[in-house]
Amino acid sequence: MVNYRKENSFGYIQSYPLPTPSMVRGMAHSLLGLKEYKPLRISIQGSFDSVCVNIQRIIKIDRYREENPYRVKVGIRKVTALNGVMFVDCLVNCKLLLHIAFDDEELTKKLYEKVLSNTVILGRNEDIARVDFNKTKIVQITQDEEVELKYPIYLDTKITKENQLVGTHYKLPFYYENVSG
Prior knowledge:
The chain is of the alpha+beta class. It has 3 helices and 8 strands; from the N terminus they run E-H-E-E-E-E-E-H-E-E-H.
């Protein structure tokens, strides 16, 4: 069960049907330990069996406030905690087909090795991806090649208009921010 959180969903955490390009880029950069953005191209396809709503207890650490009864110590810092419940959409049995290619071919080869030898986290920290090793490989894809899609896919709006395709439109976030922790 995974959640690919839609930004600006609070209290009731909604999920995109597939991980966003930002999440896939972040996963690739994290696996390689990159500290700055490296350009890459991606294709995200996938499906899931159903959606269930999970109730989760949330403890949010906040700056110290004297009036808050939930005062705790984190290391040497005094902070307060906010306690609450959130409803979270979880996609059940999510299956993904990802194509990832860095502009630097050496980075693509390194990513392939890392995927086969490391734990892959895509989405929240608790969303661990199971990698099918026998299906993970480096492939060559040309633009002239016509392919039948097995799963729903994110497509650029320009492509959908040119080919008169219909579907759900998402404004997908993309930014790169180097964070630690």
